Predict the 3D structure of the following.
Amino acid sequence: MASHTPVRRPVVGGNWKMNTDGRGAVALAAEIVDRCAQKCPQTDIAIFPPFCYLEQVGQVIQGSGIKLGAQDVYPGENGAFTGEISTSMLKDVGVSCVLVGHSERRHILNEPEELIHEKLIAVFEAGLQGVLCVGETADQRQYGQTETINRDQLVLGMAGIPQQQLEPLVIAYEPVWAIGTGKTATPDDAQAVHELLRSTLASAYDKEAAAKVPIQYGGSVNSENAAALFSQPDIDGGLVGGASLRSDSFSNIVDAAALSCRETSSESSFQTP
Ligand code: 13P
């Protein structure tokens, strides 16, 4: 009997990090709409501008099918949390997906696992898509801890979250040593971790539910290496940093993801609010 191919649309996110200015953000968003909007039927596309440009960028991409994402969130309700942004504020400006536990927040801002877990819960409770980012450092890989670190980050992030909330989940495997360094994981090494993450989900929930969760790769993805990475069976697109700041390279990466699409589902992985 032929094995059933899971239906997963590729997901491509452009994480702009702390880059652009107001004018540049609007211009980049407009170029991305021009180059990428027609690819939305094959691929879920989201861009993650800095908080202060969310509203402007949201206006530019409105109606294009490209989703507006936030790079972070605070898990509390509105109130006395100086400097923080709540899920309701994000929804108010049209955000539909949120990065949680990005490696720069884990390692530069020392964000603990417990806070990452609370953020993911808040994102799901608000009905938003959560992109849980996991990944090992160079030292952890060197000391043979790659599997443990990635498994633990996934398990701790998702602890106690029920199966019905797997639907708005996207996982991004981003090895820390590959981010912004030009060193990309080989397609085989990345696939091994993606497979591990999917089997971890299958053990915690069930195989069918795990097969539906998109797992993106991130870390020096560019126009040249995207196709080989995305052709792996458990790599469902990419979370792109540097190469998402140019519409031509981002568009090439989206094309590579669309081509890797094994079966197209009519449902979007990134949801609009
Ligand atoms: P680079 O693509 O610049 O390596 O960044 C990856 C990343 O951190 C995306 O979230």
